[in-house]
Amino acid sequence: MPNRRNVSHTIVLLTLILATAPVASSELDELLERIEALERSNARIERLVQETSLAPDVPAGTIVAYASTSKSIPPGWLSANGDPVSRDTYPKLYEVIGTIYDAGAEDGFFKLPDLDGYYALVWYEDEQLQEWIDLGKAIDPKRFDNDEPKERERLKELWTTMSEEQRAYNLTSLILSKHAIEGDTQMFQERLKERKKWEEEIIAERKRQSTMRNLRYLIKY
Length: 221
Known about the structure:
By secondary structure, this protein is mainly alpha-helical. It has three domains: 4-51; 71-116, no CATH class; 122-216, no CATH class. The protein has helices spanning 4-20, 25-51, 91-97, 122-139, 148-161, 164-181, 185-193, 195-209, and strands at residues 63-66, 77-79, 84-86, 109-111, 216-220. It is elongated.
């Protein structure tokens, strides 16, 4: 593709030539034709630049995790925070998601998905929490006999009050207890010996992944 700046410079140079140098009529006509062709080419290039993006077109409804120290949102995106927005203002987005999230929306509006407080690490936390609860049940099943759903909820609440260090310590304690109950002496001794390093690895992994919590979710309109 020709360079737009070079094309513009060429047009200017040819114009200067015509203004300063005596030329025959046939040569003048030829030069004028070339200038017009260059102008048309330049106009096509400008139009292509405006119509073509270097990045692929992102379809409406696409949700991305966005990291920025600024509170501003890039053009073409909305914060996925559950707010109601106008159907007329964002017709493409409305065409895609419709009234999926519309509980309580007024006429002429539709609601965005509400992802505030969510982050991509949810599966990791849930998996670790579930392992902790299941280990507790395996070690002390009587605790769950009367009302298992209630006991699980109690443990979930307790989990949220723990620091990362407390979670790692409690999780490793239950795993060690399980090895002891099952009579797996070798595994118990190996893990007990490496317990401090084991806990540090759990904490480091959680901290590394927990940076995802600071991301905001945006939706393309």
